[in-house]
Amino acid sequence: MALPGTPVIALPAQLPEWAAKAVDLASPRLGAQALFASDAFFAPLERMLDPAPAVFYPGRYDDNGKWMDGWESRRKRHAGHDWALIRLGVRGTIRGFDVDTSHFTGNYPPAASIEACVSASDALDALQAANWSEILPPSALRPNSHHLLESTSREAWTHLRVNIFPDGGIARLRVYGLPVGGLETAGDDLVDLLAMANGGRAVSWNDASFGSAVSNLLLPGRGLSMGDGWETRRRREPGNDWCVLELGAPGIVERIEVDTAFFKGNYPDRCSLQAAFVGGGTDQSITTQSLFWPPLLPEQPLSMDAVHEYGEQVLPLGPISHVRFNIFPDGGVSRLRLWGRVAQ
């Protein structure tokens, strides 16, 4: 039994492939923002986008009542329903959602729906006048549960309207999708071709045992902790760990950064990159091909908690669209940057 005041952390969702291979477009780390809510009396909208799992403090109260880790509106005493407006971190296609009601039991909404639009403005009047499309029809919710729900649209969107019927609380909202664009106006500028904000994505990987998503490698800024990177289990057999990544747009790589921030007793001994321009195929076929791609960066030694920069060591392969990042034999890496120019 937890001691009074001890936070109780919600169990993580068991993600299907469509979510595991996507990124959370509603993460504040990508620039997502909670904009407006019809009501947030018990808990502010910003908490619903917190990247950390929802927690529950048994004895914590504030001036308005029980402290809850999420967005919670007051009990509605008239017709209608509550809603919230969210700006995604980057424009992207949406595969689905995790509508998480962890710790909300007698105060969860019985149902929710989600609409989407494209808007150049975050202003309330502009969003209210926008052309909204329903991408998640009204769906039944349960108390204290993860609800993994697929989107009905594959278009690219910038903003969401979350409707709850009629009121209540949602602990977390994850919006699983893929960033779109970001490099259309790059011209001949030197850019991070692999950045998530520029459309980079994780295609496949052999291991992510510590729950650290491979896509963390593509996030902006340096890692915030050892949990904010990609870390594999301790390898007890021959071989090495790897992941395959797709660039936001084909380009020519000039400089590479490998950041092992916070990884000290568990950073890889060495790393290398292979790369190729891939004209088509499935994620599975691309992964198989990656075994035979030529080297972009030959094996390089790594050190703990440091940014490693490679320029002269980068081999001239011309335009590439995908890379295979190898770490030897195992361990954790915080960020990977591929600085280059978009292929014209």
Can you walk through the features of this model?
The structure is a single chain. This protein has 2 domains: 8-179, Sandwich (Jelly Rolls), CATH 2.60.120.260; 191-342, Galactose-binding domain-like (Jelly Rolls, Sandwich). Helices cover 5% and strands 41% of the residues. The strands form 6 sheets. Strands 2, 3, 8, 9, 10, 11, 12 and 14 form an 8-stranded antiparallel β-sheet that branches. Strands 15, 16, 18, 19, 20, 21, 22 and 24 form an 8-stranded antiparallel β-sheet that branches. The mean pLDDT is 95. It has 344 residues and is mainly beta. It starts with 7 loop residues before the first strand and ends with a strand. It has 3 helices and 24 strands. The longest helix is centred in the C-terminal third of the chain and has 8 residues, at 283-290.
How far the N terminus sits from the C terminus, by CA atoms, comes to 61 Å
Q: What amount of the residues lies in strands?
A: 35-45%
Count of distinct structural domains: 2
- Number of distinct beta strands: 24
Q: Using the coordinates above, name the CATH class of the largest domain.
A: Mainly Beta
What's the helical proportion of residues? under 10%
How does the overall form come out from the CA principal axes?
A: globular
GO molecular function, one term: allantoicase activity
Pathway: Nitrogen metabolism; (S)-allantoin degradation; (S)-ureidoglycolate from allantoate (aminidohydrolase route): step 1/1
EC number: 3.5.3.4
InterPro entries: Allantoicase, Allantoicase_dom, Galactose-bd-like_sf
